[in-house]
Design goal:
The protein is mainly β and 153 residues long. The chain contains 2 helices and 9 strands, in the order E-E-E-E-H-E-E-E-E-H-E.
């Protein structure tokens, strides 16, 4: 069971995301039906440790085993989506993998779930041109040497 609580007009969501940087590019993804990009990850399950959730999500979505390097950020994100007010707590980890994804940089590709999610390696210097959320990622991914807690409204 995912850690998500819903009421008539509100949703609380506990999410985990991976920061995977390779050759000056960061891996991002989006729903095929949307234009908004985010870092790969997903919902944490009840009684599941967040780093285990992230490893599970990468296996489910890409068939890739990732190593967790360290937790970088805890983010409280408040936004409006599909007619609801969303309160999302996101745990962001730096990840790496010895496994290779055989996809060209800057080219979109589908994961293991068919055409539901689109993935793309994007040059870090181009992030400000992309509709990437939470928005602070567009600049913070250029220099993420320190761990922080962010509140985004």
């Amino acid at each position: 069971m995912d850690v998500v609580f819903k009421s008539e007009n509100n949703v609380f969501n506990l999410r985990v995301a991976g920061i995977w940087i390779k050759n000056g590019h960061v891996l991002i993804h989006r729903l095929a039906s949307e234009s908004i990009w985010s870092l790969p990850g997903g919902r944490i399950k009840l009684n599941e440790e967040s780093h285990i959730s992230l490893k599970r999500e990468f296996i489910e979505e890409l068939g890739i085993e990732v190593d967790i390097e360290k937790m970088m950020w805890t983010v409280e994100n408040f936004f409006h989506y599909n007619g609801k007010d969303i309160h999302e707590v996101g745990l962001y980890y730096k990840v790496k993998s010895e496994q290779k994804i055989i996809h060209m940089m800057n080219k979109s590709f589908y994961g293991r779930e068919g055409d539901r999610l689109i993935f793309k390696w994007v040059p870090i210097e181009n992030l400000e041109e992309i509709e990437l959320y939470p928005e602070f990622l567009r600049t913070k991914l250029k220099d993420f040497s320190t761990e922080n807690h962010f509140i985004v409204k």
